[in-house]
Specification:
Blueprint: H1 17-20, E1 22-29, H2 35-45, H3 54-75, E2 83-88, E3 91-96, H4 106-113, E4 117-123, H5 130-141, E5 146-151, H6 160-171, E6 174-177, E7 179-182, E8 190-193, E9 199-202, E10 213-216, H7 224-228, H8 231-247, H9 253-257, E11 261-266, H10 275-285, E12 292-294, E13 297-299, E14 307-315, E15 324-332, E16 335-336, E17 340-343, E18 348-351, E19 356-358, E20 363-365, E21 368-369, E22 374-379, E23 388-390, E24 401-403, E25 407-413, H11 419-432, E26 436-440, E27 447-450, H12 454-467, E28 471-475, E29 480-486, H13 489-498, E30 503-506, E31 511-515, H14 518-527, E32 531-534, E33 536-538
Parallel strand pairs: 1-3, 1-4, 4-5, 5-11, 6-11
Antiparallel strand pairs: 2-3, 7-8, 8-9, 9-10, 12-13, 14-15, 14-23, 15-22, 16-21, 17-18, 17-23, 19-20, 24-33, 25-27, 25-28, 26-27, 26-30, 29-31, 29-32, 30-31
Main location: cytoplasm
Subcellular location: Cytoplasm
Protein name: Peptide chain release factor 3
Length: about 550
């Protein structure tokens, strides 16, 4: 790794070499907090997209953004462009996009299993919002390190100290400011970098130009600070910095990497403040590829044999070809194009001859890839979410579950002659995680299970658009479902025999109990104490 331009004191030195230099992360945010704008600016600062002249820049940047949106709209909101690979100052970043809608979706959860850290974006006026919290809880399940970015400081905001208090008290996370805003709203002048002592101040504003940023390397000791900032703001900044020095702990990389502490960057993605600092923070502090949990052991990224798991499958990325791309997170080894990997579930070898790396606007064939990288593997439905690919050992990565659906609906076909077609379409979409499908043991209709109501619209739209199937959804007599297993095979058989009317099979043939309501579920759970009811199911 080449020396970063601004080495941050305290950053670990050991993260070098192709594995150590990789940072695989996602951005989590409540809708509208600025995830898209920040993504765009990270790609811009990382040199992955380029803006030509300043005036053109606005149009150009708008186009870059609408590309994302267009793809999101085409694919339905639960699907996304997924992965961006870019380099910056010797680091290789893999940014995974988490679908940005209000429903919690399995797709989001699975994406978060494939990253090593996350950036949490907050709107400075709103602080922690419902979706921020839900997504944060998911990252906490894996003790994921979080960097916080407080966006929109150029608008009227909450007091920065109050925001830090809110983050620490609502999320039980130690906060350490990484930079500090100078003013807010109309009076926003820039940020003071607490790690390097640099002061970044807004220069001339011209509505056709990207805002100018003046950097004072010597920070408050630079005589120009007094020329560029009103005396009252400069005095307030000095006072705030003193308060921070006594009121907050020193930043501790280990505590951050264990998920106990978050560095907080203030800024505005729109006006480019805080973005470069955030990227450097990610490079200096965010963990390189972490060990991944597999059955029986942890797999270290430095192990020689290549391993990885599929966390997402996207069908119909190109409408003209019914192709599917499986997204593989590499966990160990040095992957080379043309390699033969074993699909552990089936025991069959797969020659990976056309692996794809995803760049901001492009895809390219990947000749090689390292742990932390995401490669797309085109296939015809062989690869499934949760699959482990391995060069030699019969490994199984864990932690990519199905979630018990909260909404169950019967699917009614406009044209009953198309039943087979519907089955195939539902299987495709189930594979992508758009829906789950259940086949009741009695009755002919498919039942779809969803985790949030928005997914129903996405499902209907995609069935119509991509499969030419008009469907309606009807209330199913069930409200919730649980995967079941028995203390012994005999216990399970007895339960299945006596409850045939409320048993369905999931896509893999695993039995599911469907309950009319929560009361019934709890009644049955008590009555059948040798049966286990599971709200999640590890994929096999
Ligand atoms: P999302 O992906 O998290 O949903 O948010 P997105 O980036 O789309 O931003 C939501 C809105 O907030 C957009 O405005 C965007 O321009 C604005 N925004 C993002 N970052 C900042 C910031 O730092 N400062 C200010 N003042 N605004 C910011 P919009 O009106 O919905 O869209 P547009 O017409 O501006 O494109």
């Amino acid at each position: 790794m080449s020396e970063p331009a601004v080495a941050i004191p305290g950053a670990p030195e050991s993260d070098s070499g192709p594995i150590g230099a990789r940072r695989t992360f996602a951005i989590i945010a409540h809708p509208d907090a600025g995830k898209t704008t920040l993504t765009e600016k990270l790609l811009l600062f990382g040199g992955a997209i380029h803006l030509a002249g300043a005036v053109k820049a606005r149009g150009e940047s708008r186009r870059a953004r609408s590309d994302w949106l267009k793809i999101e709209q085409q694919r339905g909101i639960s699907v996304s462009t997924s992965v961006m690979n870019f380099e910056y100052q010797g680091w290789t970043f893999n940014l995974l996009d988490t679908p940005g809608h209000e429903d919690f979706s399995e797709d989001t959860y699975r994406t978060l299993t494939a990253v090593d850290s996350a950036v949490m974006v907050l709107d400075a006026a709103k602080g922690i919002e419902t979706q921020t919290r839900k997504l944060f809880e998911v990252t906490r399940l894996r003790d994921m390190p979080i960097i916080t970015f407080v966006n929109k400081m150029d608008r009227e905001s909450q007091d920065p100290f109050a925001l830090l208090d809110e983050v620490s008290s609502t999320l039980a996370l130690d906060c350490v400011p990484a930079n500090w805003p100078v003013g807010m709203g109309h009076d926003f002048k820039g940020c003071y970098d607490l790690f390097t002592g640099r002061l970044l101040i807004t220069g001339k504003e011209n509505k056709n130009l990207e805002p100018e940023v003046i950097i004072l390397e010597k920070g408050l000791d630079d005589p120009r600070a007094a020329e560029l900032l009103p005396a009252a703001q400069l005095a307030k900044l000095r006072e705030d910095i003193e308060l921070i020095q006594v009121g907050y702990p020193e930043f501790d990389t280990e505590a951050y990497r264990q998920g106990h502490m978050t560095p907080v960057y203030f800024g505005t993605a729109l006006k480019n403040f805080g973005v470069d600092e955030l990227l450097k923070g990610l490079g200096n502090f965010a963990p390189p590829p972490r060990p991944q949990p597999a059955e029986g052991r942890m797999v270290l990224p430095t192990e020689k044999p290549v391993t990885g798991f599929v966390f997402k499958v996207q069908a119909n990325m190109d409408k003209n070809h019914r192709d599917r791309v499986a997204f593989l997170r590499l966990c160990s080894g040095h992957f080379k194009r043309g390699m033969k990997l074993k699909q552990v579930r089936s025991g069959k070898p797969i020659t990976v001859s056309n692996p794809t790396l995803f760049f901001a606007r492009d895809r390219a064939l990947a000749d090689e890839a390292w742990p932390g990288d995401i490669i797309g593997i085109p296939n015809h439905g062989t690869l499934r979410v949760g699959d482990t690919l391995s060069e030699s050992e019969d490994l199984r990565f864990t932690g990519i579950p199905n979630f018990a659906p909260e909404i169950l609906r019967r699917v009614r076909l406009g044209d009953p002659m198309k039943a087979k077609h519907l089955q195939r379409a539902l299987e495709d979409l189930a594979e992508e995680g758009v829906t789950q499908v259940f086949r009741p043991r009695i009755g002919a209709d498919w039942i779809v299970g969803l985790v949030g109501p928005l997914q129903l619209d996405v499902l209907a739209a995609r069935l119509a658009e991509e499969y030419n199937l008009e469907v309606g959804f009807e209330q199913a007599p069930y409200e919730t479902a649980r995967w079941i297993s028995g203390a012994t095979a005999k216990d399970l058989d007895e339960f299945l025999a006596q409850n045939r009317g409320t048993i369905a099979d999931d896509r893999d043939g695993a039995p599911v109990f469907m309950a009319r309501n929560a009361w019934e579920l709890s009644y049955i759970e008590k009555k059948w104490d040798r049966i286990h009811f599971h709200a999640t199911r590890e994929r096999s």
